């Protein structure tokens, strides 16, 4: 990408309508623009990050055996009358009428729709278990949309739904998603601690929220320092390993973590003071088992092993894809701007000419740009005729992991400067070595 031909509207001043650092930086670095309260347009650079996050979520869902599909944003009110939620949902639901005066809504979630779809298709216990998911925009008419994309009204969510023959099977589906979530967030360079969540209508221990620690988070959190040494990747654990998955779940469950909603003072008191951690956090995911709540209400049945009808047990698993863009910035920034973890960065490298009027520099930068692209390295090349200092400030603001800085003095000696955004560490190297380093 050449910055001179791109659409990257950065702001020098911090916008006064933004209260938290991620929202300020998303506006300043040109990731989003608000188009109505709680509704955002994703500008090109923000959209690249959103897509990268979405892709990590997708790959980890696929690896865990979940099956991708796509359901519409607009739903019929009658579908929600079947579960009884049309009246129960309240003013957060955006209700719409079409030209024939039929009641519709913009989906805040998809339990009803998917239950109705599988009800018409699944016939036998042999077709279970199944976990289906989609990554689709949702609308919730939040009372107080705020903090930019963190609490928007329109937002992108991955929502998966599991269908099992019995509770034992549903627990396995739940453990599988638990592992998929640990891996998903770890790949994005953030630590999202699974915390016991309020379990809703049916009780039980199968409800966890995944919380990224950040001072601006909306929930107060309490957890055992053991989570600081937790193995988030669990590389040796296979998805088919039922005992291993249960052991992981037991380990998560026995290591204290809770939000203000589920905090248990008695259990907290048993943890030694030096291991108590408190703070604030952002909910980026939520996994949830709800048994036959929707399947029973909506008449989803399959024939069981003995030929008698069985009502499948369900769970749902959400990831706030668009919220994650803000949450990652909250967890990874400094005074100069965003510091993207490499896996979600809009580009890996920012190539900058300090003097666009210096022919040898421009020639070297053009050559490097071609070589980087040929090596398949995502590069943003700031070839604008601007002050070098201002261009570097923009690079720091948009937070690409690496900067390759090409200036007249270095080029005369055959070198460029390589800067690592996260540490600020700088190094002079030959053009070839810089290219080799970026290709590693
Ligand atoms: P919250 O408690 O933050 O209102 P929720 O519990 O209502 O969220 P879920 O129904 O569990 O949300 O949705 C799954 C995920 O979708 C959440 O973990 C969160 O990351 C994301 N999400 C929910 N509401 C919003 C919103 N208004 N804006 C952005 N992301 C959201
Ligand atoms: Mg939730």
UniProtKB/TrEMBL annotation:
Its EC number is 6.1.1.15. It catalyses: tRNA(Pro) + L-proline + ATP = L-prolyl-tRNA(Pro) + AMP + diphosphate. It is found in: Cytoplasm. SUPFAM superfamilies: Class II aaRS ABD-related (SSF52954), Class II aaRS and biotin synthetases (SSF55681). It holds the Pfam family tRNA-synt_2b. Signal peptide: none annotated. Residues 38-341 form the Aminoacyl-transfer RNA synthetases class-II family profile domain. Keywords: Aminoacyl-tRNA synthetase, ATP-binding, Cytoplasm, Ligase, Nucleotide-binding, Protein biosynthesis. Its main location: cytoplasm. GO terms for molecular function: proline-tRNA ligase activity. Homodimer. Catalyzes the attachment of proline to tRNA(Pro) in a two-step reaction: proline is first activated by ATP to form Pro-AMP and then transferred to the acceptor end of tRNA(Pro). Belongs to the class-II aminoacyl-tRNA synthetase family. ProS type 2 subfamily. This is Proline--tRNA ligase. It comes from Sphingomonas sediminicola. The gene is proS.
């Amino acid at each position: 990408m050449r910055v001179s031909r791109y659409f990257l509207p950065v702001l020098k001043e911090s916008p006064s309508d933004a209260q938290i650092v991620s929202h300020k930086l998303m506006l300043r670095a040109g990731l989003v623009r608000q188009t109505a309260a709680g509704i955002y347009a994703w500008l090109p650079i923000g959209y690249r990050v959103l897509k990268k996050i979405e892709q990590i979520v997708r790959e980890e869902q696929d690896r865990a055996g979940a099956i991708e599909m796509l359901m519409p944003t607009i739903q019929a009110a009658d579908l929600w009358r079947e579960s009884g939620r049309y009246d129960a949902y309240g003013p957060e639901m955006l209700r719409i009428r079409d030209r024939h005066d039929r009641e519709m809504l913009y989906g805040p979630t998809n339990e009803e729709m998917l239950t109705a779809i599988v009800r018409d298709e699944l016939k036998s216990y042999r077709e279970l278990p199944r976990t289906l998911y989609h990554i689709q925009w949702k609308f919730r008419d939040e009372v107080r949309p705020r903090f930019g994309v963190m609490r928007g009204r329109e937002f992108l969510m991955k929502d998966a739904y599991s269908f099992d023959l019995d509770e034992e099977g549903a627990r396995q589906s739940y453990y599988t998603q638990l592992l998929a979530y640990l891996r998903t967030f770890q790949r994005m360079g953030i630590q999202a601690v699974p915390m016991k969540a309020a379990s809703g209508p049916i009780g039980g221990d199968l409800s966890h929220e995944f919380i990224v620690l950040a001072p601006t988070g909306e929930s107060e959190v309490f957890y055992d320092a053991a989570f600081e040494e937790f193995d988030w990747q669990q590389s040796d654990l296979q998805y088919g390993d039922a005992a291993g998955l249960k052991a992981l779940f037991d380990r998560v469950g026995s290591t204290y973590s809770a939000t203000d909603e589920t905090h248990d003072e008695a259990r907290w008191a048993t943890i030694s003071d030096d291991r108590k951690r408190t703070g604030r956090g952002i909910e980026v995911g939520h996994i949830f088992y709800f048994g036959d709540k929707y399947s029973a209400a909506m008449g989803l049945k399959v024939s069981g092993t003995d030929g008698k009808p069985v009502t499948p047990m369900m769970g749902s698993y959400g990831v706030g894809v668009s919220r994650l863009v803000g949450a990652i910035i909250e967890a990874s920034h400094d005074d100069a701007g965003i510091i993207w973890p490499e896996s979600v960065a809009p580009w890996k490298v920012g190539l900058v000419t300090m003097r666009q009027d210096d022919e040898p520099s421009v020639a070297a930068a053009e050559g490097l740009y071609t070589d980087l692209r040929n090596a398949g390295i995502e590069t943003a090349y700031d070839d604008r005729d601007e002050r070098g200092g201002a261009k570097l400030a923009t690079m720091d603001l948009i937070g690409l992991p690496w900067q390759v800085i090409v200036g007249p003095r270095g080029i005369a000696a055959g070198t460029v400067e390589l800067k690592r955004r996260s540490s600020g560490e700088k190094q002079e190297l030959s053009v070839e070595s810089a290219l080799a380093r970026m290709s590693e």
